[in-house]
Amino acid sequence: MKQAMTDPGLQSTGLADIQGRLLLIKIVVLIIVGLLVVRLWQLQVRDGTYYRNLAHDNRTRSILLHPVRGLIYDRNGMLLAKNVPSFNLYVQLSDVPDREALMGKLVELLSLDKSELNKKIQTPEMETPIRLKKGVSLKEAAIVESHRLDLPGVVIRPEFQRNNPQGVYAAHVLGYVGAASEEQLAREEFQGLPPGSVIGQYGVERIYERTLRGRAGRKLIEVDALGHEKHLISVDKPQVGHDVHLTLDFRLQKLAEDLLGEEAGAIVVLDPQTGELLALASRPSFDPNALSRGLRADEWNTILQDTRHPLTNRAIQGQYPPGSTFKIIMATAALETQAIGLTETVRCGGKFRFGNRTFRDWKKYGHGAVDLHKAITDSCDVYFYRLGDRMGVETIAAYAKQFGLGARTGIELPAEATGLVPTPEWKRQTQGEPWYPGETISVAIGQGAVTVTPLQMAKVIAMIGNNGRSVHPHVVRGIRERDGEWIQKWAPTPESALALRPPQLEAIQKALAAVVTEGTAPRARSSIVTIAGKTGTAQVVSLRHKSEEDTPKRFRDHAWFVAYAPFEHPRIAVAVLLEHMGHGGSAAAPLAKQLIEAYVSYGVDEKDGTQASRTFPSHKPMKQGTRVHG
Fold first, then answer.
1. What's the longest Cα–Cα distance across the chain?
2. Residue 609 pLDDT level (bands cut at 50, 70, 90)
3. How far apart are alpha carbons 235 and 218 in whole angstroms?
4. pTM of the prediction?
5. DSSP 3-state of 160
6. Quick check: 211 and 239 in contact, CB under 8 A?
7. Which of 131, 410, 567, 578 counts the most CB atoms within 10 A of its CB?
8. Other C-beta atoms within 10 Å of 213: how many?
C-alpha cells in the first residue's frame, strides 16, 4: 500500500493537475489585468479629457454677473433713477438632493410664500441659478448663512436693485424694471439674455432698455459639495449701462402732480420752440419701487383690477373728447377755407335747429351777434355749429390731421394712443353705417366720436403759439457714458407747418389771449405773465335738466384748458385735463396758471437753456369755485 502511495506515476498526475489549475488561474488573472489596463487606458487616455472636464465642472461654476443699469436724470442733473445695493436669494437646483425638504426649510426659516416658492423650485433643472427672493434683509441673510448645511444649493448674492429716489413722481415717464418672462426672453430683442435677467418693463426703462442695460459679465468660482462658493478663480467684469438724460424739469413735474392731487387727470408741459417735455404728469399713479422690487401675484392682480387704472399714462394713453378746445382747429379750418370771414357775424339765440333736432348753446339765451373773436373768447357753440355745417366733416378732419390729431406724436414712451378723427370712411369701415350730417354738428364743438390725448392738445396749442410751426414732442435729451461723454444728443427733425396766413393766425392768437383777459378763463389771468389759452368742457354722457351737484361724479364733464405763455414770445405750452371735474375755466385753468407762473418766475439760463436755481413758489391746492363754461 505504501508503494501505491509513493508511486511516481500517481505523483506526476497530481502535479500536472495542480499545474494546470495554476495556469488557468494565471490566464484568468492576466485577462482581468488586461481588462483593467484597457479600461484604465480608456478612462485616462481616450476619455481622459472628458472626465477631467467633468471633474472640473463638479468643483467650479460659472456665475452670471448682472450689469449695473445706467442712471436717469432730469434736465438739471437731478437723479431720478439709480441703483442701490441689495442681497438676493438664489438656488442652484443641481445641488439640491431633496427639493421638498429644501422648500420646507426655506418656508420655516424665511417665511416665504409656499405656493410661489413651489413654482420656482419645481421647475426643470437649469444650469443657471434661480432667484427665489429679491431684497433679502440682513437678518434673513444671517439666517441663511447660519443654516448653510441645511440649505444645499442656496446662496446669497450681493447685487443692485433699481430705485427711484423721488418715489411716485414721474412714475409713468420713468417706468419700472422686472425679471424678464419666458415670453419676453423668446423675443428677438432679448435673445441671449439668461433667465432671471432684469429688464425695463414700462416707460423710459422699457424704450431705452438696450441703452440702460449694459453688458453682463461672468465669474468662475470653486464650490464645495453643497454648491457654496469657496474660492474665486477668474472674473469677466460686467459693463455698466449708459445714462439717459430727460427733458423733464423735476420741480415742474412735481408741481404738476401735486396740483392734480388725488384727482384723475393729466398735465402736459412742453417748450413750444423745441418740443421738449418739461412735465408729463398723470394721476392716479403707482410706486415704481414696489414694482421693481417684485410683487406677489395677488398684489399685481390688485393693481390690474383697480378701477382707477393707475398704470395708465393718461397724458399719452387717455383718449377724451376735446370739448371746446377743438374750436381752435375749427377756427383755423374756417378761415383757411374761407367758410367765414374774420368780421362776419352769426346770430346766436342759444340754440341751433338742424333737421328734427335742436343743438343748444351752453349759454341758455345765447350770445347775440358773434364774430370769430367773440366766438372763441366766449366759446359760443352756435357759431361753431354753423361752421361745422358749412365745412362738412371731411374738411374738419383734414385740418385736424394737419395739427397731428388722429396720429401718434412719436414720443419715446410705450403704448401711445392715436385718438380718433372721425370721417365717413371710418364709420363705414368700423360700423358699417353711413355718416349722418347731424354727427358733424357734434364734432364741430369737440364732441361725438372725436377723441384726443392731452399730449396731442399740448402740441396743438404749441403750434398756435409757435406761429403754426409744428414741433416733435420728446422726453429724452440725450445719452451719456458714465464718464461724462455724450454718445447721442437729441437733434430737431423737420416738422410741417400750418398753411395759415399771418392775419388769420394773428386773429386766432389775439382771441386766445382774450379768453383769459375777458372770456371764459378769468381764473387763468396772471399779473406776471400774459397767457393765451382755450377752455373746454367735454361731456361724458348726456344728462338733461340735471345740476352738477345732482350728477354722480363719474358722469360729470371733463375739464380742459390749453394755454401758452408769454403771449409775445411763447416759452411754455400747457394742456390740463381733469376727469369729471366740470368746467375747464374754473377747474383746469387755475392749475395751468400756477404752472406757467412757476416756470416764468423760475427763470431760464439763456446760455444753455437749463433752469436757474431758484425754487418754485408754493402752489395753491385745487378747489371748487365759481363755474365758468369752457
1. 161
2. very low
3. 6
4. 0.83
5. strand
6. no
7. 578
8. 25
Confidence of residue 610 (pLDDT cuts 50, 70, 90): very low
Q: Is the pLDDT of residue 606 over 50?
A: no
Report the mean per-residue pLDDT for the chain: 87
**Is residue 303 exposed (0-12), middle (13-18) or buried (19+ Cβ within 10 Å)?**
middle
pLDDT value for 550:
60
Q: H helices within 527-630, ranges in order? A: 584-587, 589-602
pLDDT band at residue 548 under the 50/70/90 scheme: low
Distance (Å) of CA 511 to CA 77, 336, 381, 516, 530: 39, 16, 15, 9, 13
Say how many residues make up the chain. Answer: 630
The answer to whether residue 608 scores a pLDDT higher than 60 is: no
Q: Does pLDDT of 622 surpass 70? A: no
Residue in 197, 282, 292, 324 annotated catalytic:
324
- 3-class DSSP assignment, residue 222: strand
In DSSP terms, 476 is beta-bridged to 246
Residue 13, C-beta contacts closer than 8 angstroms, at least 6 positions apart: none
Which secondary structure element, helix H or strand E, spans residue 327, and what is its range?
helix 327-336
| φ and ψ of 402, to 5 deg | -60, -30
b/e map 274-287, b = 16+ CB within 10 Å: bbbbbbbbbbbbbe
pLDDT digits (tens, 9 = 90+) for 502-524: 899 999 999 999 999 999 999 99
**CB–CB of 75/611 below 8 Å?**
yes
Q: Please state the separation of Cα 158 from the chain's center in Å.
A: 27
Per the CB < 8 A criterion, the answer to whether 572 and 565 are in contact is yes
At residue 113, the pLDDT reads 79
Let me know: does 416 contact 403? Beta carbons within 8 Å: no
- Give the residue, 258 or 624, on which the prediction is more confident: 258
12 flagged as catalytic? no
> Which residues, in sequence order, are CB contacts of 422 under 8 Å at separation 6+?
393, 397, 435, 439, 443, 448, 449, 450
Which residue from 560, 404, 622 is spatially nearest to 496, judged by alpha carbons?
404
Residue-wise pLDDT for 580-595, tens only, equals: 988 889 999 999 999 9
Identify the helix (H) or strand (E) that includes residue 223: strand 217-223
Q: Residue 135 CB: number of other CB atoms within 10 A?
A: 15
Rounded to the nearest angstrom, the gap between the alpha carbon of residue 384 and the centroid of all alpha carbons in its chain is 38
Q: CA 403, 406, 409 angle in degrees (round to 5)?
A: 65
Give tens-digit pLDDT for 180-225.
Answer: 888 998 898 888 888 778 999 999 999 999 999 988 888 888 877 6
Grid cell for residue 448: 361725438
Is residue 583 a contact partner of residue 590, using CB atoms and an 8 Å limit?
no
Torsion over CA of 8, 12, 13 and 18, rounded to 10 degrees?
140
- Show Cβ contacts of residue 90 under 8 Å, excluding neighbours closer than 6 positions: 129, 130, 131, 132, 154, 155, 156, 157
pLDDT at 617: 41
Query: Contact 212/70 with Cβ under 8 angstroms?
Result: yes
Task: Report the amino acid identity of residue 428.
Answer: R
